[in-house]
TrEMBL record, chains A, B:
It comes from Phytomonospora endophytica. The keyword GTP-binding does not apply. CDD domains: HTH_ARSR (cd00090). Residues 5-101 form the HTH arsR-type domain. It comes from the Bacteria. Keywords: DNA-binding. InterPro entries: ArsR-like_HTH (IPR011991), HTH_ArsR_DNA-bd_dom (IPR001845), WH-like_DNA-bd_sf (IPR036388), WH_DNA-bd_sf (IPR036390). This is DNA-binding transcriptional ArsR family regulator.
């Protein structure tokens, strides 16, 4: 299954904020910010999340808002943060939000 | 009626992002960013919103997340953006989000 993703100019700030306004999704984005592609299972493991179906919903929200790329690879799905697109469209937003999550964590 | 507001250190980035992820609330914050106190009716007028009850919900979300102060004054309510608190806790976030809304508007 190949997913549809919005083009860079179809991304909206409301959509990105909504996607990042959930602690689990925000934590997943923080993990993907390490760079490169990770498969869903790896991210779940780092997050300590066992409910795969909940994450299916979270990946969809992140994908539909333009925050991540998700592509099939064999029986798994690979995830990449769309940092270049997000930085181009909303310079600084991602870094500030990730820093904010660290502020909250104390 | 006096409202409860979170203290600065009770504000969470998820709560702020969620509050700002709605176009009407984001537009209201853009109006309040002009500075000072405005009453709800003035903001509604600038927004071109006639449904007062919908805005009652929006003010609550903005208030509970720590984005605005809301205080009664006679028969009206006065609103102020909590810019100092937001800038202290998440430096740059508000400006980048408001700039993002302008980017989206093209």
């Amino acid at each position: 299954m190949t997913f549809r993703h919005p083009e860079r100019d179809q991304i909206s700030v409301e959509g990105v904020l909504s996607a990042l306004s959930n602690p689990t999704r925000l934590a997943a984005v923080g993990i993907l910010d390490g760079g490169g592609e990770l498969n869903c299972g790896e991210v779940l493991k780092i997050l300590g999340v066992s409910a795969k179906s909940t994450m299916t919903h979270h990946w969809r929200v992140l994908r539909d808002s333009g925050v991540i790329w998700q592509r099939p690879s064999g029986r798994e799905y690979l995830l990449t943060l769309r940092r270049e697109d997000l930085d181009a469209r909303y310079p600084g937003l991602l870094d500030i939000v990730l820093a904010g999550a660290r502020t909250d964590a104390g």
